[in-house]
User: What shape does this take?
Amino acid sequence: MKKHILTILTVSVLFAQNTDFETQYYYDAIYLQQGFFGQKYVKGGESFHLRSIRKEMDQYQESSDLYEKSFIMRMLGLGVLIIGPIASSALVNTDEGSFISVYFGSLFLGAFAAYESYNKLHEAIWVYNREQLKRRNDDNEFESESNSWRWKESTP
Assistant: This one.
């Protein structure tokens, strides 16, 4: 009987710790939500568009820098995708070889910039979530022992 009570108590404590983390993550972290009209970012049950999460990213220097790089890459990709085909159409009458090179080169460069922008944005969100959860758990710290992680209470 004592084994069953001990097991129930242990499981209850483990689930309670997990619930606290899930609640903390829900209110403090930003995560991606696919919607009908595109991607949205959710924090604490509130939905944000891409432009709206800028204020959140500015809380931490590293996430702000990554968000800025993402924005620059997004604008570069958009500019290349718009200007490249227009510039290549001006070359169609003079040289077909350069037309094809400029056209496909701009499409490739624009797609690459869009992909990099997407990666930098998600890296910025990851860094924001990491810093936000670290700030929340400032009284706890991680300790590593032989590749296994465990919580350790910090002593003042």
